[in-house]
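Batch 3, record 17
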Amino acid sequence: MNLLIMNIPLNITGTIHDWINSIMPQTAANITEWVLIAVAYLALFAVAGLYLVLLERKVAAWFQLRLGPNRVGPWGLFQTMADALKLVSKELTSNDRIDKFLYNLAPYFVIVTSLTAMAVFPYSEQFQGFDINIGVFFLFAISSIGVIGILVAGWSSNNKFALIGAMRSGLQTISYELSVGLSILTMVLLSGSLQLSEIVEVQRTGGWLIWQGHIPAIIAFMIFMIAGTAETNRAPFDLVEAESELGAGFHTEYSGMKFAYFFLAEFINMFIIASIAVVLFFGAWLSPFGITEGITWFPEVLWFLIKVLLIIFLMMWFRWTFPRLRVDQLLTLEWKYLLPLNLVNLLLMAIVIWLNWTI
Amino acid sequence: MSYFSDIYNGIKTLLTGMSVTGGYFIRARKGSLTQQYPDNRETLKMFDRFRGEVVMPHDEHNEHYCTGCQSCEIACPNGSIEIIWDRAVDPETGKKKKKIDQHIYHMGMCTMCGLCIEACPTDAIVWAQNYENSVYDRAALTKILNQPGSVVKAGIED
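Prediction for the assembled complex:
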């Protein structure tokens, strides 16, 4: 536990740490600190998720020559807050003859896994909740659990649309996990570590990994972006929800806050995919060309956020440009194109590293 | 080797699509298509082909073009138009001539199909561009299109 706090040696957390330890025994203080950190993370990313929804709506509007939400607060800044309040106050309805236990469990599966993944990212040098030495592996493992929530939601809803959506989700995630994994593996080959803070350290001296790995890294990035978009179930890979075919897919029968959990999880997953891309390819919190290297007061987390938002913007651009794939096209893309290219790319990266062609 | 050309074409067409939407994204702040309706009520101008309601234009001498031929009444699929007509002696020729007494338009029944306006041989009725047509009493939706005391413009039948 002390490790957690020591990783955030900002003045304010130090003060809180001392104060909590002075008023209660060691074990209680540790538990209090866990709870505090968890609440801080939850609050931060719930709000971040809400604002991502707003950003999505604004960006979507601009891509379609519309204005987007602009009534609730200045420039519609409180729109998603109001939406969340509305969802909290709504009745939790359910279908006839559902599997009650699984039905109620499913949203938590989805939201908890995506929030857990947030803990390991190095937002800045000090701001990292949980720096384990298998960080990339942990992320990869955690992000696969979310699909269980989707499958459970579809199965327990007693609704054919939900079931079809959930089955498509299983199919899609199993296929695209491979590509995400292999493209991450390509970069791990280059960085030589699974620990996220270590990967950032590699980039501090030698430049961002997409620069160090040049051609194979760029191919890996493109494949990662395609497969990552598919992982988050967003258009053009939104067969899981597919409004025009399945109503709302796996969460057709959910209402109120349970629906909000699914919705929020989708946006937090987008943030996770963008964060993985930023850490593995674009040097996490490192400034471009080291322009703020010497400035100690500069909040490095800003660079992380800027890069993440750029990647998220790219994903939104995909969403509002490309039409949805058919199921057979989805599988063709993965098994006939992305997977072979990825394997060749992995080999190429190995050769590049073997012959010392990295920059 | 269509495999690699497929990949090349795929990426190329996707980038073309992204450049189109990217252009929209950049221009969206200036050329937004959204009409913020209740706020811009003063400046909002409806479009030429907008179908608000059927009106009968009158000129400055309180004359209209309706000869009372009833083509519109026959063309109307659900009887939204009723014409009450009469015969009067034409002072110039001394013959009895058909003229309208009241051109009644039931706007509450009208589906805005436009068949009456297409049927009118003298263009006596046209589409108006107004759009705020809701009222509290449906009797207010039954309108008499010709103004009181108006007469048909001379020579329109020739």
